[in-house]
Amino acid sequence: MAEKKQRTIHICTCLECERDSTSETAKLHASINIVLASLDEKSRRRFVGVLATQHGYGGVQHFARVTGLSRTTILCGQREIEQVDADQPGRIRAAGGGDQVIEKKSRTAQSAR
After folding, report:
1. What separation in angstroms does the CA of 79 have from each of 28, 47, 85, 100, 106?
2. Distance (Å, whole) CA 40 – CA 50
3. Using only C-alpha atoms, what is the Rg of the chain?
4. Which among 13, 55, 56, 89 is most buried, taking Cβ atoms within 10 Å?
5. Sequence-separated (6 or more) residues with CB below 8 Å from residue 11
């Protein structure tokens, strides 16, 4: 069985968390990052996109600092949640994404020549 890769938990770099790591905001940011570490990439984008949308103006930049995700990734998540999910339900990436399959040449095909 293949092992699932464990993501590292990002440490927030916002001013409030740097000032007081025991504040309620710091605990909230730590909780968000713990949840993000357990999500796949599509769910991570969408979750942070929802948070940034709820935050309002400056939300994308704020949650980029809190989560360590890029602003373009968060914006992509916001666009995804605005659209109806017409993707294939079981897929995380679009069809054809990822590494290409490398077929191994078989010796039987070569010896038949």
Report:
1. 25, 12, 11, 28, 45
2. 16
3. 20
4. 55
5. 17, 33
